[in-house]
Amino acid sequence: xxxxxxxxxxxxxxxxxxxxxxxxxxxxxxxxxxxxxxxxxxxxxxxxxxxxxxxxxxxxxxxxxxxxxxxxxxxxxxxxxxxxxxxxxxxxxxxxxx
Length: 98
Fold this sequence. Notes:
The chain is an alpha+beta fold. The model is unreliable at 1-17 (pLDDT under 50). It is built from one helix and five strands; from the N terminus they run βββββα. It is globular. It has a five-stranded antiparallel beta sheet with strand order 1-2-3-4-5, covered by helices on one side. Helix content is 27%, strand content 29%.
């Protein structure tokens, strides 16, 4: 599998997750993830070296940050702005139209 191809975590319940996660984008050492059983509003989870943030896809705002560095957070926010349309399309592909 190439590092840019999305994947679905197989058998998430057995691994202790309540839902599967889909990596929909990678950039700057960050993974942009959408959970299959997640909730509105549309958002992505961004994982970095030491933490995770949630970023809204419609309002382009930070929802929460748990450990991403200032640099990682700045890069994540910029990447979401650049890739917003594609990330929203992925959200709708996973969750259906909203």
